[in-house]
Structures are given as structure tokens and as C-alpha cells.
Amino acid sequence: MSYLDSLFSLNNKVAVVTGGTGVLGSSMVRALAQAGAKVAIVGRRKDVADELAAQIDREGGTAIGVSADVLNAQQLSQAKKVILDKFGAINILVNGAGGNMPGATIPTDRTFLDLKVEEFQKVVELNLTGSVLPSQILAEPIMAARSGCIINISSMAAYLPITRVVGYSAAKAAISNFTQWMAVEMAKKFGEGIRVNAIAPGFFLTEQNRTLLTNSDGGLTERGQSVINHTPFGRFGKPDELASTLIWLCSDGAKFVSGVVVAVDGGFSSFAGV
Ligand SMILES: NC(=O)c1ccc[n+]([C@@H]2O[C@H](COP(=O)([O-])OP(=O)(O)OC[C@H]3O[C@@H](n4cnc5c(N)ncnc54)[C@H](OP(=O)(O)O)[C@@H]3O)[C@@H](O)[C@H]2O)c1
């Protein structure tokens, strides 16, 4: 293996991906497996996780499906045990579970006064606590070994809040902040062997935003068109366009990189709109 290949290799690493059953998560699972990692796919839909794991095994990789809700400490502890029993270590945690929720999205004919606070709390819980709690439980072996990395998934909504999605925007801004906080906490308490970074995807068409961005006939909603107009590349991202950023951040190639949020967004976050 050349020096450059070795810098980006994840051979013999064990990666855990929460939300590995989702559109972006499953693409990240494939990328990690292709880079040589053994992957634990965590989601509430065990059947979907198992099916993806079987596909990866057929393609020559190594993966298992593990069931857990990222907000349930007991399930996460059980998941950790299953992963450690199977693979013997956890070196990489990708906190991929998350997304917006229809109930927490203010309809165009309503205002902030109509927002149900329980719906706001649910979306903040999923996106923020749903990364904090798995970092405590699934990344505990990383801290015990003083070696490994955590990748959080932020969003364009973290840079500037996005209309109608107040809870999701607040939660993703908090994820970028948590990424920086954790990067410092890990380095100060456990040393430079633990790095914490985030990826902020631009707009990718997935299950959690499909009804906001597209109509039932597949055409763009007004909001979907507005996203495209605001993306200098003029298109949505493709899930596999996150792969190389993810592998770089997880590998020795990013040995001196911690606390950054890398936008993979077709220019969205740099565009003022004029
Ligand atoms: N799509 C975009 O444009 C975009 C942009 C920026 C950031 N993101 C972020 O990227 C991440 C992946 O989203 P996606 O677009 O790929 O959405 P998706 O296809 O809807 O996937 C969401 C994933 O989250 C998991 N999940 C949801 N609630 C969970 C819970 N309580 N416990 C465990 N897993 C849970 C789901 O798994 P189960 O149903 O199996 O539990 C699923 O795997 C999210 O953090 C999202 O906010 C997406």
C-alpha cells in the first residue's frame, strides 16, 4: 500500500453508524466498509440494518445490523455490548441519526405562535441528545482506548437558520457547537488520539425532507426550487458525495484536524443569494 493509500485506509477499524439505515447513513456505511472498516449499522429498523449488512458482506465487506433507539440509554448499552462481542472494539462513531419532523415544521399559513413546544422538543431531542447520548455510550470504548474519532452530522441550518424549521435549525447549530466542545474536551482529557469533527451536508433528497422539497409527482415544491436556486451548483447532493470527506475525517489523513465542520454543499453556505 502506498503512503498516501495508508493515510486514508480504515483497515481493521470498527465503525459504528447511527442512522445507518437512512439514505445518507447507508451511503456512509458503504464508504466506511469500502475503506476497510468493519461496520455496525445502528437503527430502530433492525430488518433494514440487517439487509444492508448482508449486502455489504456480499460485496466483500464486513458489517452487522444492530437495533437501538439513539434516545434510549439501555438500548444503546445493549448495542455496545453486541458490537464489542462481535468486533472487539469501537474506533469510529458516526452520529448519523437525525432529521427534521413534519410536526415541528411551521406551515406556510401559520406562525411561530402555532408551534407546539412538544414537537419542538422532539426534534431537538433527536438531533442533539440523539448525538450526545450515543457519544457517551457508544464512544466510551474510544475514550477508554484514548484513540478514535467521532463524526457528527450538522446541516446548512446550523450556519443560518432555515425558515419554518426552528427546532431543527436550533438543534443543528447546537451540533456544530457540540462538535467543537467535544473536540476540546476529548483532547484535553484524553489526548490527541481522539478527534471530533462534523460534516454539514447541503441539501440531499432523503426521507426526512422529501415532502418539503418535492410534490407527490416528484416535481419540486416552491421550497425545493428555492433550495436549488440558492445552491450555486443548481442541484441536490448525491449521497456518495459525502464519502471522501467522511473517510478523510476518520483516517490518519486528518490526524491534526479536530473541531471542524466541513460543508459538502455545492456552494450553498457561501452564497448570499445575489
Ligand atoms: N438530507 C439532507 O439534505 C440533510 C442535510 C443535512 C443534514 N442531514 C442530516 O443527515 C442525517 C441523516 O439524514 P437523512 O437525510 O439520511 O435522513 P433519513 O434517510 O430519514 O435517515 C434518518 C436516519 O435516522 C435514524 N433515526 C431516526 N430517529 C432515530 C432514533 N430515535 N433512533 C435511532 N435512529 C433514528 C433512522 O433510522 P431508523 O428509522 O432505522 O431508526 C434513519 O436511519 C440526519 O442527521 C440529518 O439531519 C441531512
Remind me, CATH topology of the largest domain? Rossmann fold
Residue share in β-strands: 5-15%
Derived from helix and strand composition plus strand pairing, the structural class reads alpha/beta
Give the CATH architecture of the largest domain: 3-Layer(aba) Sandwich
Q: Reading side by side through the largest sheet, how are the strands ordered?
A: 3-2-1-4-5-6-7
Rg, rounded, reads 18 Å
Strand tally is: 7
The helix tally amounts to 10
- The coarse silhouette is globular
Average pLDDT reading: 97
Fourth-tier CATH superfamily name of the largest domain:
NAD(P)-binding Rossmann-like Domain
Helix content class:
40-55%
Number of domains: 2
Q: CA-to-CA gap between the ends?
A: 47 Å
In oligomeric terms, what are we looking at?
A: single chain
Q: Largest sheet at a glance?
A: 7 strands, parallel
Order of helix and strand elements from N to C terminus: HEHEHEHEHHEHEHHHE
Unreliable sequence segments: none
Bound ligands, each once: NADP nicotinamide-adenine-dinucleotide phosphate
